[in-house]
Amino acid sequence: MDKAEPKIKELLEKTKKHVVIFDSCQFTMRGLTLLCERHAGWRMCGTADSFSQLWQLLARQRVDLVLCGIGKRADDFSRLLNLPDYFAGRCILLTDKSSAVLRAAFLSAGFDAVTSKQVSLTALDSLLYYTMYSSPEDRQAERVATCYRPLEREVLSALLLGKKPHAIARDMGGSYRTVSRYKQNGLKRAGLNSLNEILACQKNYVAK
């Protein structure tokens, strides 16, 4: 065996890109898997249809890109809002239909891209490739101005879980006015006027 061969294999392993897919739709997971497998050097590390499965996959190995759908549980919106805060890799959210509200809300949560499952395969493939290989500097520049601040994210996440403002204030050790301010600042950062815009989208997914 060539002495350089193990080093070459190690280098190739390091340059591989690892992908995880999270979605409640088996057809979507299959389609995304086939799309990702077209890229040389991309390795599928598993699929998940629940957040507990997703956390297990993320904890087990290095993951470079997570492709997410929006689940059917009432707490999925809240969990998705926090995903980019816990996962250092790249995240793309796929919505059932194009939605300016969801795009604004989740880009501000730190997702690298939010797009519809109805886009063409060519457009989706280009988005996957660009997101996977964009530089950390470019990603940081795109995120810094519009990302929720930690307490804004905490308040919005709690509200999407159905918690009342007074209960959130009690848990945070603050006041109702403080909770309201963080909510409004977060919505303003995302370019939204009301939490009801997000809640209406949430209802559409959970009701299916």
UniProtKB/TrEMBL annotation:
Keywords: DNA-binding. InterPro entries: CheY-like_superfamily, Sig_transdc_resp-reg_C-effctor, Sig_transdc_resp-reg_receiver, Tscrpt_reg_LuxR_C, WH-like_DNA-bd_sf. SUPFAM superfamilies: C-terminal effector domain of the bipartite response regulators (SSF46894), CheY-like (SSF52172). Residues 18-132 form the Response regulatory domain. Gene3D superfamilies: 3.40.50.2300, Winged helix-like DNA-binding domain superfamily/Winged helix DNA-binding domain (1.10.10.10). The keyword DNA-binding applies. Pfam families: GerE (PF00196). The keyword Ligase does not apply. One of its GO terms (biological process) is phosphorelay signal transduction system. GO terms for molecular function: DNA binding. This is Response regulatory domain-containing protein.
